[in-house]
Write a structure and sequence with these properties.
The protein has about 240 residues and is mostly helical. The protein contains ten helices and no strands.
């Protein structure tokens, strides 16, 4: 029954991402350990976030920059392959701690810059973002700086972050299926969470223009930090 708590959490985190452009995936994966088995965390998270990002992109389709899709996809496929090879050798008991470590890095360490915002940069971004995503789940913030070089408008950033993260999640879900992970035991939870994140995207899209961003980011960092520390501690308990 504890896994049912993920349905309202999925709604809230999707609405959050629709308002801010990022953060929802990190918050969701930080809350998942302890509610479902470690082996299911990243695949279930990937399916849910695919729906969240696709719906967010669809609700703002006029802002989509279709030129980013192909180069990012090329890198994402290669990254999913390499990340899957590493994931297959992991001790899943320590997976929550690994995810918590990456969440802390994403939250507090300045992200590496990539020069420009052209096709090569997008392919590199797709490679390392999807590769890391196979291990850590939530990697959305990594690409924000690249997209800002193309268009710094808030609506454009939110929508196109959703576009490239949709590609990211498609590659990762396909990789997990090819690795033998079965979504069949989780179809009811995944379906409910997908409906919740679509509703969250719809609500967040309509709230976006009225929500200030600066104050939120400070409190969000500390909330995510507390949750990440919890994730690191779980395997030790």
């Amino acid at each position: 029954m504890t896994e049912l708590a993920l349905i309202p959490i999925a709604f809230f985190t999707s609405a959050l991402a629709a308002v801010m452009g990022m953060g929802g995936g990190i918050l969701l994966i930080a809350l998942m350990p302890g509610l479902i088995p470690a082996a299911a965390i990243i695949p279930v998270h990937g399916c849910t976030q695919l729906a969240s990002n696709l719906s967010r992109a669809a609700f703002g389709w006029k802002e989509i920059d279709f030129r980013i899709i192909l180069p990012f996809s090329v890198g994402a496929i290669a990254g999913a392959w390499l990340g899957g090879e590493i994931y297959a050798g992991l001790n899943l008991h320590w997976l929550p701690a690994l995810i918590g470590f990456f969440v802390l890095v994403y939250t507090w360490v300045p992200l590496p810059g990539l020069p420009g915002g052209g096709p090569l940069t997008l392919s590199i971004l797709g490679f390392y973002q999807t590769g890391l995503g196979m291990l850590a789940g939530a990697t959305g913030p990594l690409g924000a700086a690249v997209l800002m070089r193309r268009n710094s408008g808030r609506d454009s950033l939110v929508v196109n972050t959703a576009v490239y993260m949709s590609v990211n999640h498609v590659a990762r879900v396909c990789a997990f299926v090819l690795m033998g992970f079965s979504l069949a035991p989780w179809w009811q939870l995944v379906t409910a969470m997908i409906l919740a994140v679509i509703a969250g995207s719809w609500v967040g899209t309509r709230l976006r223009s009225g929500v200030p961003q600066v104050e939120f980011q400070r409190w969000f960092k500390w909330l995510v930090t507390v949750l990440a520390v919890r994730m690191i501690a779980l395997p030790l308990l």
